[in-house]
Amino acid sequence: MKKTKLSDIGEFGLIDLLTKDISIKNKSTVYGVGDDAAVINNSDKQTVVSTDILTEGVHFDLIYTPLKHLGYKAVVVNLSDLYAMNATPRQITVSIAVSGKFSVEAIEELYQGINLACDVYGVDLVGGDTTSSFSGLIISITAIGEAKKEDLVFRNGAKDTDLICVSGDLGSAYFGLQILEREKKVFEKDYNSQPDLSTYSYIIERQLKPEARKDILETLKINKIKPTAMIDISDGLSSELLHICKQSETGCKIFEDKIPIDHSSTIASDELNISQITAALNGGEDYELLFTVPLKDFDKIKGLKDIYIIGHITDEKNGKNIILRNGETVELKAQGWNNIKN
Amino acid sequence: MKKTKLSDIGEFGLIDLLTKDISIKNKSTVYGVGDDAAVINNSDKQTVVSTDILTEGVHFDLIYTPLKHLGYKAVVVNLSDLYAMNATPRQITVSIAVSGKFSVEAIEELYQGINLACDVYGVDLVGGDTTSSFSGLIISITAIGEAKKEDLVFRNGAKDTDLICVSGDLGSAYFGLQILEREKKVFEKDYNSQPDLSTYSYIIERQLKPEARKDILETLKINKIKPTAMIDISDGLSSELLHICKQSETGCKIFEDKIPIDHSSTIASDELNISQITAALNGGEDYELLFTVPLKDFDKIKGLKDIYIIGHITDEKNGKNIILRNGETVELKAQGWNNIKN
User: Which residue from B12, B155, B158, B256 has the highest number of Cβ atoms inside 10 Å of its Cβ?
Assistant: First the structure.
C-alpha cells in the first residue's frame, strides 16, 4: 500500500483530497466545503456555520499564553470566519479535550475568556463536549451565524478592476509571536528573568488576544458598500489573496507601500531582522479582513477609518503580483518565505 | 490559588461549573446548553446542533479500531444526539488533528468511514478544519439538523406514570469492548495470535460500528407516538435515565427482567464474569434511544419491533430504582459499578 506523508501534500492538498468526492444531497445545503463557512438555508435567513480546532504545541504555547486569552482567541478566530461571510455570529459550540495536568481552575480560566468573547460579540454558547486527552489541551469550536441570502459574501466574486482592501494592519501578530518566542528562550535559560515587554504590548496583544473585525462590516454597511469577495486573514495576506484569485478566477496586483503596517511592527522588524513585508504577506493570525469592492465604490471607500486600498484585481492572465517599493514585480506565493528579500 | 483536580468534580460537575453563568442573548437561541443538542430558531423550522470530540487513547484504540469504522462511528455518535431530539440531521462539520504518525492513506480511510455514514444517513459534510497535533488523532464533529418546533423532544418532559422505553439491546457495545481489550492483551504477548472472533462478531460490531436509531423515530412517527422525553444511551442506561429524571423532576422504576440484552452479550457475560445487567446499566456506547411515552399510548407501543417497555416514571419522592430479578429494589446510580452484584 502506498504511503504518502501528510507533509508531502500539505494541508490544502489534504483538504482537496478529502473533499473532492463530497456531493450535496440536501436542498438546505446552499454552500458546503470551500469557503470560510458553510451556508444552510432555513427559510428567510441563512444559517452560517464555521469550525476550527486548536491544539496545544501547534496553535498555542501555554508557556506564554494565558488561558483566558486563549479562550477568547479560540472564539474570535471562529467568529472572524463568519464575519468574512458578511454574516452575524449568533451561537457557538465548544468542545475541549484536556489532559490531567490541567486543574479545574485552569479550565475555568479558559472559559472565562470564552465567555468574555461571547459577551463582547453578542454570541451564545449553546453546546459542546468536554473530555480527557493524553496530550495537553485541544479546543474545537463551531460558530453559527445568520445572514440574509443577498448579504452573503463569498471568496469567488472578485472581478477585474475591483479594488483590493484590507482592514487594520498586517504582520503584527507574527511579530508578537516572535517576541514571545524570543523571551521564552531567555526564560528557559534564566527563570528569574523579568522581561520588560511594554514596548511590544500592541503586537503581543495582537498575537494573544486578537479581535474579529465586526466594526469593519458595520462601517461598510453604513456606507452602502458590499464587497464582491471577502476572506479573513488567518494564514497571511498572500495565501488569502491567492484563495480569492483562485476561486474568482482572476489575477491581482498589490503594492508593498500600500500595505498597512503598524509602527511597533516596524520596530520589531528592525530588532528581529525579519522583513516587515514578509511578515505581512506570510505571517498570519492577524484576523483582519481582506475584501474586494467594485472600482465604482472608490469614492465611498477611500478614507474610511482603518480600511486600506492595497491594489486591484486583474485579469487572470496577468498573474498574481506584488509591486515592491523599489518597483520590482514579484509573484505572490503562499508561505513563500524566501521569495522576498529583507 | 485553589487547585481542584478534574477528577474531583467529574465531567458533569465540570460541565455544570462551566455552564452555570451562561445567559441566552439571542431570540433565535431557543435551547442552549443542557440537552443532547442546541436549538436555533430559523423561521418555520428549527436548526438543531450537536457536537462531540473523540481523542485517541480515550475514546478509541487504534490497535483494534479500523480507521474507516472510527470515521463512521464518529459521525454516528453525533447524529444519535440529533435523533434523540427527534430532529433530522442534515449537515456535519468535521475537524481533525493528527500527528505525524498518520499517512495520507490512513486519513483517507478515516474519511471513507465519515463519508459512508453521511451517505447512509443522508447528511452533507459542509465544513471543517484539519490540523496537526503532537499526540495522535483527535476528531471533533458538529452535527446540524432540523425539526419542526412541535416535534422536538427534550429530556425534561417525562411525567409520572409515563412508560420508560428503550430500543435495541443494551450492554453489547461494552462487552464488545471487553473482548477487544482481552484480545489486545493476548496479541501483545504473541504477535502471531490469530483469534477467532466470529462468536463475538455482533457485540464487536456494536462497539466498533454502531448505528443511530433513525428507524425507531420513523416507527414512532408512523404509529403517531411522540415521546415525552428522550435521550440517546451513550453513557449507560443508569446515567441517561437519571438525566431524564433530574431534568423532568421525577423518579423512576425499571425492571431488570425487562431490559433487552442480546444472547451474545449473555455469552460474553458468562465468559468474562461481568454481570450483564451492570453492563447494560453502566457500560455505555450502545447509542440506543431511551424515551418515555404517556401511559395512554401503551396499546400503540406494545409489540413494536425493537422497542421495549422497561418500567415507568414515578413521582420524584419515590426515588430512582431498579427492581432486580430476585425482587430486590436497588437505587439507580450513574457509573455505579459496585452497587449491583453479579
Answer: B158
